[in-house]
Design brief:
The chain is of the alpha/beta class. 26% of the residues lie in helices and 11% in strands.
């Protein structure tokens, strides 16, 4: 029977390839087989450059934080108002050996979160909702249920087609939309000197921006001294919510004793530009120069490299400002003229003033060059007793004078 089945299958395949035989399409009334059923409820999620197997559907992944009533938080990790991920088709791990698995396709559908900010990926890794993500002091009542994805042991959860959108439908009842971080086109980053002497200038500019953009204005600052302190005070005075007042203090990280302040500030500046995505950088510095080291110079250079415009305010008058360009950092300074290219001047340069000779006591005596005709006589080695006797004789002679 096996040989007959193989011969019939080979004949049917040849007839299909030549077009002489067309099989009947499957009937729509037939019940779905287990292979064509809905995909498995444990998708693969990718964040922090790693792949994990979810404990269940994305909408049902619970938060592991503990509430004030000492119960488990009922909110899910997937928040419709937070930044969403995307479903993509990605290849399996490069170490995957297709001979160990009965798979014909080497692609899998996964929920990708690598394009989100680093803080949002940490929230998914900690398996916390958006409410408990900002309260790190809240304890965990359960352990996280992520499993490192392994294509050999989790092959039954691999899906080769993109599923339906995971987000549920929006409710029909009208409600005011919650503004998102990336929806605002008026995200302003304030940086500047730690000794900025005119805080009223920052207040004036922020008042102008608030009058133009209204409630869409988002202020990003580093909670430092000087210019950042004035921006922080303005946000506190106007009682801005957390999504409009983005504060990034320079927290002491592990290994701070072995790292300089400039290194930590450079990391903080890069993280702010990557996570917050400002549309404008306003730098307040009374003595700004591209060659001078500092946090303001580093932030301006990084922002210009990413294509973010930078507006420099060097004085107390906000109208006397200028736009910075990347050419200030990339163009080298003009070379100094060579001595043979310096044009002669009509007036000779003034001669240097005569220096006064100040006697020094610990000066090394001048030694004459050796004379080959009169070699120096070798010095006789003296003992310690003879040296002490000479010192006492010299002291007595000086005392008698």
């Amino acid at each position: 029977m096996d040989a007959l089945r193989r011969s019939l299958a080979l004949t049917s395949r040849c007839l299909q390839d030549t077009g002489h035989f067309t099989p009947l399409p499957p009937s729509c009334a037939d019940p779905p087989t287990p292979d064509t059923a809905a995909p498995d409820a444990r998708p693969v999620v990718q964040f922090l450059c790693l792949r994990y197997l979810a404990p269940g559907p994305l909408e049902q992944i619970p938060c592991v934080a503990q509430t004030r009533a000492r119960n488990r938080c009922p909110r899910p990790v997937l928040d419709p108002d937070a930044l969403p991920g995307i479903w993509i088709l990605a290849p399996l791990h490069p170490d995957h050996d297709p001979g160990h698995l009965p798979l014909n396709e080497l692609w899998l559908a996964l929920y990708d979160l690598t394009h989100l900010p680093y803080s949002e990926q940490l929230r998914w890794r900690a398996q916390r909702c958006t409410a408990h993500a900002t309260t790190p002091d809240a304890a965990d009542i359960a352990r996280t249920t992520w499993e490192p994805f392994n294509p050999r042991t989790h092959h039954q959860h691999i899906q080769h087609h993109l599923p339906a959108p995971p987000h549920p439908a929006r409710p029909t009842t009208p409600r005011p939309p919650r503004p998102r971080m990336t929806d605002s086109h008026s995200r302003v980053l304030i940086c500047g000197s730690r000794r900025w002497p005119w805080p009223d200038t920052i207040t004036t500019l922020l008042d102008r921006a608030a009058g133009r953009h209204g409630n869409d204005l988002v202020v990003i600052e580093g909670a430092g001294t000087g210019a950042a302190s004035a921006a922080h005070h303005w946000c506190t005075l106007h009682d801005l919510p957390a999504w409009r007042h983005r504060c990034h203090p320079l927290a002491p990280a592990p290994g701070r004793r072995t790292r300089t302040r400039c290194w930590s500030e450079a990391e903080r500046n890069q993280r702010i530009l990557h996570d917050e995505g400002p549309r404008l950088v306003i730098a307040f510095h009374e003595n700004f120069h591209p060659a001078h080291p500092g946090s303001t110079n580093d932030m301006s250079r990084r922002a210009l490299t990413l294509g973010v415009p930078v507006w420099l305010v060097p004085t107390a008058d906000p109208d006397k400002s200028l736009w910075l360009h990347l050419s200030y950092y990339t163009c080298p300074p003009p070379p100094a003229p060579r001595p043979d290219q310096i044009e002669p001047t009509a007036v000779p340069p003034p001669s240097p003033a005569p220096t006064r000779l100040v006697p020094t006591f610990n000066r090394v005596p001048h030694r004459r060059p050796p004379d080959p005709d009169h070699p120096p006589t070798p010095r006789r080695h003296t003992s310690r007793k003879e040296e002490a006797f000479c010192d006492r004789a010299t002291h007595r002679t000086a005392r008698g004078r």
